[in-house]
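Q: Structure tokens for this one, please.
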Amino acid sequence: MTTEPHLLSLRIVVPPLGSRHGTVECRPIINGRDILADVFDEGPADDPRYLLGPDAPLHATDTPREVRLAEAECTEGCCGAVYVTIRREGQHVIWSGWRNPDEDDVELPELRFDVNQYDLEVRRASTDHSWEWSARTVARLLEERLLERVDWLTTWECELGAVSAWHWEPDQISVFLFHPGRSAIREDRPWVQFRMTLPISGDDPGDQAKRLEARLTAGDPREVAEVCGGSKEFADQLGYPWPGSRRRA
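A: Here is the predicted structure, written as tokens:
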């Protein structure tokens, strides 16, 4: 007997702006049922910025890949996460190999989707930004623009970490930079992370992103940013003040 393929819907959940509770989630709804709610109550589904987009992990290919769908609030290493392996097989997309590092078994079956319905839903969710608040839209657009400014980042020995907007800070965004780059972390060389906090207005998000790009790329970002990551030892070696210490001359 032929089994009808499952129907996928991706639901974006946004907590009330200004609230310290909750997080933005991309929740998979299968045949109208929130399947993560049935098997995992330790934390939220992952943020759409990690699950969606042009090259995001929810896109199915012929090569199977494991994707994390949810993580415990206290981190995966403490109370687990939910993973699934996604692969394209002919006219179907298959979710299988459910795994939680903190449990012996995840009681979810193999799920089979029609490839056209699946691809259409992932594309829809990836391009629908109607749920975003203004700062989140500015952050996304600014990140896209800064990723194209390789010249600026190279000049100042920086690598873009992320441009983030959080619902509990609805009127600002944060730009994170690594100096000299993430490779220094892997190679155990001195590195620091910088953060710049920028206010967001009610102006058009695209115009704001354009203005902020021009402002940020006009000079050395390390001179106006604050160290927020790495270690005091590394900061001292690179000549930058650790948080709470005096700014270098």
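A few notes: The two ends are 76 Å apart (CA to CA). Residues 8-127 form one domain.
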